[in-house]
Amino acid sequence: MKKPDTPAGETAQPQQNRTRGIRAREIRANMTLQEKTSQLLHESPAIPRLGIPAYNWWNECLHGVARAGRATIFPQAIGLAATFDEGLLERIARAISDEGRAKHHAAVASGNRGQYRGLTFWTPNVNIFRDPRWGRGQETYGEDPWLTAQLGLAFVRGIQEVRDGVLKAAACAKHYAVHSGPESERHTFDARVSQHDLWDTYLPAFEALVRTGKVEAVMGAYNRVNGEPACASPTLLGTILRETWGFQGHVVSDCWAIRDFHENHHVTRTPQESVALAIQQGCDLNCGCTFGHAAEAVEAGLLSEEAVDLAVERLLQTRIYLGLLDGPEGNPWSNLSLEVVNSSPHRELARKAAVQSLVLLKNDGVLPLGPGIRRMYVTGPNAFNPEALLGNYYGMSSRVVTPLEGIAGRIPEGVTVDYRKGALLDRDKENPVDWAIFEAGSMDVTIAFLGLDSTLEGEEGDAIASRHKGDREDLGLPQGQLDFVRRLKETGTPLVVVLTGGSAFAVPELHDLADALIMSWYPGEEGGTAIARVLFGDESPSGALPVTWYRRTADLPPYQEYAMEGRTYRYFRGEPLYPFGFGLSYTTWAFSELVVTSRAGDYTLTCTVTNSGQRDGALPVQLYLTPPDTAADTLKGAPVPEASLRGLRRVELDAGESRGVTFTITAEDLALVDTEGKRVSVPGRWTAHVGACSPGRRGIELGAPEGIQGSIDVGNVV
Fold first, then answer.
1. What total number of domains does the chain contain?
2. Are residues 607 and 504 in the same domain?
3. DSSP 8-state secondary structure symbol assigned to residue 290
4. What pTM value is reported for the model?
């Protein structure tokens, strides 16, 4: 594929920006007030006399083009995060945007300009997964602001390729900001957050996507933030997004969020007042219908026409950039055809991503399955459950491989495989006659597929079996599944448990019962193939946890509290069940020879990583920084993180092979956020930790290799 003519993820040159702006103003100047306001809704009608076709802004591609028919279904976003692989996410996003472009051209050719057929994709979700009870946390890249920013940037680069001055597709950073549940209260909730937590945790990924990634759109959240509705917040949209970060794209509301202003938040009284507040504060596009009252708001003197003009121009610039106001002639992306959609290379990429997303949490030697296995028992409610592959916001594939099908396609001839569901997903079985446990007792190994699916966790209206509108009240396994595992263990047959779900589980008993434990997330259309390849040792697992797994739900602060103290590996002071960044392999690893050098205020860290085992493998090498003991004195009351991820390198090594790995640490990395939300230099001796998971003894106890440490001495001036 031809390389972009500008750095991936960046807009075209300033002159091209000015040219688009001039053209947008010229078009807008010829519109009537009614025509202008009609363009502020996600379903924008055509204006034939100006050569403007109808356009629907609403499209999704969280882990593949969603809700538009055939597409490749990659692992859910949280599973992509578990790969700890920026390059992989960029390749996936490039494949997704190829499919999106091809499907858009085909839809337009057939006369379909409706929802889910455009080129403005409301992805990625870079909210921080602060609490594992949030059902939509599966859409995010986990709990760490730095990792979320790096993976989000990679995804934006893949979506927003530029060729000959034309944007292939537009990405959107959502939901801005401080948004992570509860789902049941999202239309009424006021997220109260300190300036420290706002700038330390909730804003960094958005800032990175705006300032570095040049993301084309930002979506506001449903909730209020410190009293201001996010979709009309002068602080978030004006002071921070436009003035401080210099955002040049457009802002879109979450769907029907503007209606919440007067119906639920009660910051306005009428739809006209809600429209005026939103547009005047910088929201350009309404997913919903409330902006249909925009002309009335102007005529009533509630809203200036100049504010409407500005919003229209911003939206027109995006459409111009995408080539949507021009014919296909000369469009560098017009040659993308439907042949790319769910093509063999994209399916292979989905399989590769699914393999890399699998996290091996425990292995007492039963994995990989060896040639001595003659009788295998496959069981559990998710062994043959396509819902456990998909997560939410997915497309349609003609070939979705469940774990049972993946095992059946991989098992050597002569090995007997038996399958019974054995347990129900979210309730106890009713039939007192049960052959499932008897069957397990006669087998060489039992593989139990347990966990959740998208009927139990997700967005408020999707998780139809959830009692909490998609959220989870308890982080444990459903009781019926846990009872089933106990009975399987009593048979004495070696037990491998594969969990599906979009979040962490609090399952200390399951850790004790299982001989091997794998977290597979929602692994996409090739999930079953990937799981089978890892079970049989065709691939070595290399995924790592993008979220902390706690021992019990009670270890967490109340769900509705947005303070970060006590949450995530950065501010949780207890011992986790499984630490952030943790994941085992079929081989062993060693770190050595850490050298720290400084130059012009930056620091270079180099070390040697060795595959010390007998199998080839891959490892996400992670660099964490721990502040000096005196950091609390400098911050004067702001919480000090235990450690923070600041570097990531994925290495693939043959058995016995070694390789040097280099990280660069800047002055910005050696600063912390104070109570006013400002990053300040923290003098003293910082500890740099390079290893295979976040620092702490728990990872080592579970089998992670010993990391290696070095010191960075920081003076009083950044």
1. 3
2. no
3. G
4. 0.96
